[in-house]
């Protein structure tokens, strides 16, 4: 098995997949903690479906680089939904369901009506489930993904304390003079960018699991915000790495393999918390 | 660097060990998982530059596309792990004897590029069926 | 010297007016207790004083006070009860009021946080997780955080809500001690009798608005 792996690692697209995959896992897990604690997990799912709809339109319009349309549209939706923070009016699950499933239906309809390629269900399947998208990135997509991931990680590090304050207690943060609206805006934009990037790795339907599992696992193990954030990042990176390697060795779809590893890790952390117990 | 050489040596050893059975090729898709097979062919078709000149063995479905009355494209089709995406690679047999109605084929050839309508299209030249 | 003065202020949300024609002043070192029925506008008043909401009418004078001078102890939210954060991290977040664009806390910030933690007697809990503390301990942590942001005034929104009588009495003593140290206190409370024991001034919101010293309120 090791020889096969060494053989695979000679291909640049495999190395690219590992690098981009790890970076995406890193930045998504950092924001995942905030998303879970602010009770916005469902919104992350809704945004992923909006991104699918945008991607469908971009495919039909034959964009060379589909992210040019997907990124701005997803960011716009994220800003509209998340900007209000705790005061956001569109938090009701009915409205998220409307936006989320509506975009999915719209996207699929658009792709059917204006089929640009002969293999429609294949394209849809790979965008929804990310079976091999990470292994078939163009050079431009690789550089864009790496650049954006690094930018998102830097933003998180710089805004870490503000993100903590805004997540823990918005009212206090506002009273303390923090520009909470600007913070929420930044967080929304970052979440949107990360979701569009993560679509390449795990596909639109699996993104919420991918973002949330590492955060939940970390919360079972640690009790301070910093420890939870670092643990979430470490677990997400490890699971993404293992998932990609496992899928290319075993011949399974990449996206589902990564999320399966994430889920397994959560199961282990949960069991450890319940029966082993860190004090 | 050491890892690279170790990989090369291992690779050569592995392929040499099956020398009696088949000729050594640079890229042997028959030994790879379906995920890797699909990704490799996809990358090859979309950016052939790094693959041109290498020999390859692949196993997949045999399909034909009649382009005109006199010309037919013969291709080997591979699918990804979920089975919903497929990618085909054209091959040109050196002896010209294409199988009729075969389902699964194994073909060995050299990767090459030809220009069709201004685009670089990848195909396997000087190929043979196994 | 009045730190805060309100003249004919109206408070509410949108078109709904909750309080009309309110006038009062808070001097340095005062201990003002705001009491009234549910929905009388107590929290609305505090949020308006903090700048979280705009008044519907009238004028509010903040005599040179900035966000860095005012500490706030809001009511606890559901999110906080399950939040994975240590006491240290929470108290330190109060120092955000002092920062502008710097992304990291300075050693000065950490010193202030440590001092306030010790001041409230929770230094031994510094590394503990917030959600594992008792109600009274949690309120002390949030009070320490508010102190990090408060140089002159502390606004407290029902600080004893959900506390058992012993913890509530403790909390009152702590707040009174802070007032004796020179911090101006504005506190919303449901518990009229206990609160008035310590307050210097009382503001009653409701059908009839009353503002005056504790003695005046007792006699009214």
Task: Give a nutshell description of this structure.
The complex is a heterotrimer of chains A (279), B (130) and C (220). Chain B is 22% helix and 42% strand.
Would you kindly provide a written description of the structure presented here, covering whatever features stand out?
Helices cover 80% and strands 0% of the residues of chain A. With 279 residues, chain A is an all-alpha fold. Chain A has one domain: Orthogonal Bundle (ABC transporter involved in vitamin B12 uptake, BtuC). Chain B has one domain: OB fold (Dihydrolipoamide Acetyltransferase, E2P), CATH 2.40.50. Chain B has helices at 2-17, 34-46, and strands at residues 27-28, 55-66, 72-79, 86-93, 104-116, 119-129. The longest helix of chain B has 16 residues, at 2-17. Chain C has 220 residues and is of the alpha/beta class. Chain C has a single domain (2-219), classed as P-loop containing nucleotide triphosphate hydrolases (Rossmann fold), CATH 3.40.50.300. Chain C is built from 8 helices and 9 strands. Chain C has a 6-stranded mixed beta sheet, with helices on both faces. In chain C, a hairpin with a 2-residue loop joins strand 1 (2-13) and strand 2 (16-27). Classes of the chains: A mainly alpha (279), B alpha/beta (130), C alpha/beta (220). Chains in contact: A-B, A-C. At the A-C interface, helix 7, helix 8 and helix 11 of A face helix 3 and helix 5 of C.
CATH C-level label of chain A: Mainly Alpha
Q: How is the quaternary structure best described?
A: heterotrimer
For this structure, what is the CATH homologous superfamily of chain C? P-loop containing nucleotide triphosphate hydrolases
Report the end-to-end length of chain A measured between terminal Cα atoms: 40 Å
Give, in order, the helices and strands of chain C: EEEHEEHHHHEHEHEEH
State mean pLDDT of chain C (0 to 100 scale). Answer: 85
The CATH class label of chain C is Alpha Beta
Number of folding domains of chain A? 1
Rg of chain C is 17 Å
Helix percentage range of chain A: over 70%
Number of strands of chain C: 9
How many helices of chain C? 8
Q: Please state the overall shape of chain A, judged from the principal axes of the Cα atoms.
A: globular
**How many domains of chain C, as an integer?**
1
Major sheet description of chain A: none
CATH superfamily of chain A: ABC transporter involved in vitamin B12 uptake, BtuC
